[in-house]
Specification:
About 25% of the residues lie in helices and about 25% in strands. It is built from six helices and twelve strands. It binds a DNA duplex (16 and 16 nucleotides) through helix 5. One of its GO terms (molecular function) is damaged DNA binding.
Length: about 280
DNA sequence: CTCTGCACCTGAAAGC
DNA sequence: TGCTTTCAGGTGCAGA
């Protein structure tokens, strides 16, 4: 599923295609996928598309919002007559006839445009929420994003203080600390910083914290520039595809020689239940 | 409070 | 080939 750069790529794709459209109808298959009342959104016009961390917020003219979390396999696909934009988990559904067995929600929009929420594993969701409810979620469950100017060494040290024995990988994956980071960009940032995913945060020096911030910004900005990571060979119907997968140095590179030419190899371990890729030679 | 591990779901890919 | 196991871009929560 998408991390910050992939979700931002979706936001950009949706922005040009659905803003100004009116929601004609909403159909969904499970209560888990669509949490809200369809009458709270039908008849309203889409006024904006925003992103924070890995969440997509579609703003409506009646002051309600559709908040999406795509989790691991969520996708948002817009079909405007013959033109199609697909983002999120890469799968054949980017091109498949829709709706299909993975379709959880169909939004019928004005001008014969359709927005599909597909999600194979059903972990993702769409909730109908007020601006205040969304603000409360951000306030409670999300910290700053690495690209925010407030994401400083002081900020990270304040978060680190109470959990000195946590390893850095899980620390950076914590959305209340580094919003928008996920498994790919965390592994890549740790490689860039030359720091082992297993390092306890109490053993990280101030210059290393700064290097971590710089590395996170570097890999996230690369992800944004390349339109995210598109594992496998999936290409969007509009001809574009994410390009970050060609620039990954450790994620899913198990067994390959270290990109730093240090003589080491990329190995895969499990940290906090997540596949973790790093060079045990030059990441310490 | 922190930490660990599993639960939530389904399918693709890798291993035997 | 075909069966079995592992893995998957993410949380959320019970129990220690």
């Amino acid at each position: 599923m998408p991390e910050l750069p992939e979700v931002e790529t979706i936001r950009l794709g949706l922005t040009d295609r659905i803003i100004g459209k009116k929601i004609i109808s909403v159909d969904f298959d499970t209560a888990k996928s669509f949490q809200g009342k369809t009458e709270d959104v039908v008849g309203s016009t889409i006024s904006g598309v925003e992103r924070r961390a890995k969440l997509i917020q579609i703003k409506l003219s009646n002051n309600n919002n559709l908040l999406f979390h795509l989790k691991l396999t969520g996708q948002l696909i817009v079909i405007d007559h013959s033109e199609r934009f697909a983002g999120g988990h890469p799968s054949h559904d980017w091109h498949a006839e829709l709706p299909n067995s993975n379709t959880r929600i169909v939004f019928e929009l004005s001008d014969n445009v359709k927005l599909y929420f597909n999600d194979m594993r059903k972990f993702g969701w769409c909730k109908v929420l007020s601006p205040q409810a969304i603000e409360a979620i951000y306030e409670k469950d999300y910290g700053f994003e690495p690209l925010d100017k407030e994401f400083t060494v002081e900020y990270l040290l304040s978060k680190a203080k109470r959990i000195p024995n946590r390893n850095i990988k899980q620390f950076l994956m914590d959305q209340t600390i580094a919003a928008g980071m996920g498994n790919i960009y965390t592994d890549e940032a740790l490689f860039e910083a030359g720091i082992s995913p297993l390092r306890k945060i109490k053993d990280i020096s101030v210059p290393e914290w700064q290097k971590l911030i710089d590395s996170m910004c570097k890999v996230l900005n690369m992800g944004l520039k390349y339109g995210g990571t598109t594992d496998s060979d999936y290409v969007r119907a509009d001809g574009t595809k994410g390009g970050m997968q060609d620039h990954l140095k450790v994620y899913h590179q198990t067994g390959k020689p270290c990109a730093n030419d240090c003589g080491g190899k990329v190995i895969r371990i499990t940290v906090g239940g997540r596949g973790t890729h790093y060079c045990s030679q030059c990441q310490n």
